[in-house]
Specification:
4 helices, two-stranded antiparallel sheet, disordered N terminus, mainly beta, 13-stranded antiparallel beta sheet, 320 residues
């Protein structure tokens, strides 16, 4: 059972950081550093209601040279084997990111920013094997100084993303966490409708995401709670579903062939935006993910069914 728990924790430790699926490039750390490109597709944005009262069109308009320093705090826990299974708590992680607007073209509605990871702090994972937290802490220090670029359009759609990841050791858990936190900025784009909206407006954004062999459909529903000038407060809910094979997932024991029979995830939270900044000013999200997987160990006559639950919380805030 412990070996199966290790398999499940390797597969889903990174998903537990966010409770959401990430692009395929977020799964396997390359042997050599190489740029990571945008690898997810918006299927469309659908207005559900335009809200009430005064309505206006919201568009991002950051200025060249403007800077933003953000701290992202991540907590996650995984249970393998149902309620009576093995519980794994990942170390708490806090990442400081500085973002600078490098290009702004109001005519075309395109904005490009550069980001750099300034600091990473890692707590202790009480249920991890001895030394695991120290190993993860050491590996994540490779993030410090890492920089890249991304671009959004005036509606907030992510149109480009690129960074180079460093090589790391063969610690699969550290690899997955390093890769996921490096991808976090991709999940912070929040598109607005083209139409004018008011308080109470709701809209949905649907994405198809490929996650190392799993095809996941993600739907995020937004609601405009309030706005004052360029400052907006949104609530959001995210639903995901998917299935597929993870036979080639890195870090698995040799001969294991995991099949994801079902993946279902829900998350909800709030965020605040300043339309003169590229990233949210604050964000709080809690997520619950349940996965049913079948693993056939080497030389086993019958596959083994496992149930994995993941709980995660992410808090993001501007640093004064």
């Amino acid at each position: 059972m412990k070996k199966l728990a290790r398999v499940a924790s390797v597969l889903f430790c990174s998903a537990s950081l966010y409770g959401i699926a990430l692009p395929e490039s977020a799964i396997a750390l390359p042997e050599e550093p190489k740029p990571i490109q945008l690898a997810q597709a918006n299927n469309g944005l659908e207005i559900l209601t335009t809200g009430t009262g005064s309505k206006q069109i919201f568009r991002f308009a950051p200025s060249v040279g403007s800077q933003q320093t953000t701290v992202m705090a991540i907590q996650a826990a995984t249970t393998v084997g149902g309620k009576q299974g093995i519980a794994l708590t990942l170390p708490a992680i806090a990442i400081t990111i500085e973002t600078t607007v490098m290009e702004a073209n109001a005519d075309t509605g395109s904005y490009r920013g550069q980001f750099i990871y300034q600091a990473v702090e890692v707590g202790d994972g009480e249920t991890l094997p001895p030394g695991a937290s120290d190993s993860i802490r050491q590996q994540l220090q490779a993030l410090v100084g890492l920089n890249g670029e991304f671009a959004i359009d005036a509606q907030g759609n992510l149109t480009d993303f690129s960074l180079e990841l460093p090589t790391t050791s063969d610690n699969p858990v550290a690899q997955q966490i390093l890769q996921q936190v490096s991808e976090a900025l991709k999940q912070l784009s929040n598109p607005f409708p083209a139409e004018a909206i008011g308080v109470g407006a709701q809209w949905q954004v649907t994405q198809d995401v490929a996650v190392s062999g799993i095809e996941v459909t993600q739907t995020t529903t937004y609601e405009l709670l309030d706005y004052q000038g360029n400052n907006l407060t949104l609530a959001f809910k995210t639903d995901q579903s998917g299935s597929g094979s993870l036979a080639d997932f890195p870090g698995l024991p040799e001969g294991f062939d995991p099949q994801i029979e079902s993946l279902n995830s829900t998350g909800e939270g709030t965020l605040t935006l300043n339309l003169e900044q590229l990233l949210p000013s604050t964000l709080q999200v809690q997520s619950e993910t349940e996965m049913v997987m079948t693993i056939k160990p080497p030389n086993a006559s019958q596959p083994i069914d496992l149930q994995v639950q993941v709980s995660s919380q992410v808090d993001l805030s501007d640093q004064e």
